[in-house]
Design a protein that fits this description.
mainly beta, Sulfite Oxidase, Chain A, domain 2, five-stranded antiparallel β-sheet, 7 helices
Length: 439
């Protein structure tokens, strides 16, 4: 393997942690010669020495531009994983393929979705949102009337409280990032601040809670603190610049940045101001946080600081020794990501990854760590820290506080518990194959 070359004045490629982790400053300049790093067999080596051959697609007129673009047929495997592909009479999950994506914004068609009673086919001209209860004047809004307000945009992740729950298993499941962590996605959401609508209705000072209800057949409802509504809540009507996808709440949904996904009520049709929480089915049974000893938290709204490596990960492989970029996403329901640490030796030593900006509050931040793989076994994991000083827990300390599944978890579809935010570890063997391990 050829050595990595460094230009004069370029950042140093000095190791910062064990097993080949390279100083993140190397990514700030153009000093890394990837051709040299790839070695003699690298596809970049000598590319300019031979004339380019004309491929078939360069010799004929291409396809007509369609009215609505769809991905290339060569990207046919970049799809969501479905838990209920046959449409049985039960809930349905669609997981985001993070290991096949880059950046921080999840495409709308690949944003995760959970629907407990199917996706309603709502006519936006007939749909209405009512705000009532402990208010001076009940109000009614349509999609058209909401669209007249000054709209604001927030970059925010939405994560199911059951995301990563398969990792409560005592034995690591051999499956992809998609199946472990695919119930979280990140978008730019655009809509009307909920505080503006509540002010217009004239909320009673004694009203401390909201009961948010959806228009699906189950009429899913959740209790939301009024304090959160006046922080950063939106009635969202756009996602990444276009109207919401049906499975993500069309024509309007509640967005509560940093709060568990089920509280971000889709197909929102009613917000009732009350003086106490409703203790509904979804906050007393389905999304209860059970602790060791059988105790349950009364409420656990916030999704805690978290990260996971997407490249390399299970299902992907390293073809040969050389220079690679370890990459993944980090996020926190309480603020911005301040730092992500990466280890290539199972947590014995750590290096600080580079964060790609801009860094938004309660949103995905992509981290990148340059890594020189020497062909020997390595165990990769990441650990995020947010600007409030909250640190992603290592597995041993997390299990001590939250416990493990009593019964073996044999499928990623099992949800033995909620709010898993510990580290994810990938073991790379001498052949470049990647397995899921606990470190």
């Amino acid at each position: 393997m050829s050595k990595v070359r460094r230009r004069r004045g370029a950042p140093s490629l000095d190791d910062v942690a064990g097993n080949g982790l390279i100083n993140r400053r190397a990514l700030l300049g153009s000093g890394i010669s990837f051709a040299g790093a790839l070695g003699a067999t690298g596809t970049m080596n000598g590319a300019a020495a031979e004339p380019l051959a004309d491929a078939p697609w360069s010799l004929e007129f291409g396809q007509i531009t369609p009215a609505l673009q769809t991905p290339s047929p060569f990207e046919k495997d970049v799809t969501r994983a479905l838990s209920n592909p046959n449409g049985e009479f039960r809930n349905s999950h669609a997981r985001t393929p993070h290991q096949l994506l880059g950046g921080t914004v999840t495409p709308n068609a690949l944003h995760f979705s959970i629907n407990h009673c199917g996706i309603p086919n709502i006519d936006p001209a007939q749909h209405k949102l009512v705000i009532h209860g402990m208010v001076r004047q009940p109000l009614e809004f349509t999609l058209e009337s909401l669209s007249r307000y000054p709209l604001v945009s927030r970059m925010a992740f939405v994560e199911c409280a059951g995301n990563s729950a398969p990792m409560f298993s005592k034995v690591p499941l051999q499956t992809t990032v998609q199946m472990l962590h695919g119930l979280v996605s990140n978008s730019e959401w655009t809509g009307v601040p909920l505080s503006m609508l509540l002010d217009e209705a004239g909320i009673d000072p004694k009203g401390k809670w909201l009961i948010a209800e959806g228009a699906d057949a189950q009429m899913l409802d959740r209790s939301v603190p009024v304090k959160k509504a006046y922080d950063d809540a939106l009635i969202a009507i756009y996602q990444n610049g276009e109207r919401l996808m049906p499975g993500n709440g069309y024509p309007m949904r509640l967005l509560l940045p940093g709060y568990q996904g089920n509280m971000n009520v889709k197909f929102i049709r009613r917000i009732k101001v009350v003086d106490q929480p409703a203790y509904s089915y979804f906050e007393t049974k389905n999304y209860s946080q059970i602790l060791p000893g059988g105790k349950t938290w009364r409420f656990h709204f916030v999704m805690e600081v978290k990260s996971f490596i997407t490249h390399p990960s299970f299902g992907l492989s390293l073809k040969e020794p050389g220079l690679y970029a370890i990459s993944g996403v980090a996020y926190s329901g309480t603020g911005r990501i301040a730092k992500v640490l990466v280890s290539a030796d199972g947590g014995k030593s750590w290096g600080e990854a580079a964060l790609q900006g801009p860094i938004h509050e309660k949103a995905f931040t992509r981290f990148v760590m340059p890594w020189r793989w020497d062909g020997q076994p390595a165990t990769l994991l990441s650990r995020a820290i947010d600007d409030g000083g909250n640190v992603q827990p290592l597995r041993a300390e997390f299990v001590a506080q939250r416990g493990e599944a009593e019964k073996p978890v044999t499928t990623p579809l099992a949800f033995p518990n909620q709010h898993y935010n510990s580290t994810t570890s990938w073991a790379v063997d001498g052949k470049g194959e990647v397995k899921h391990v606990y470190a």
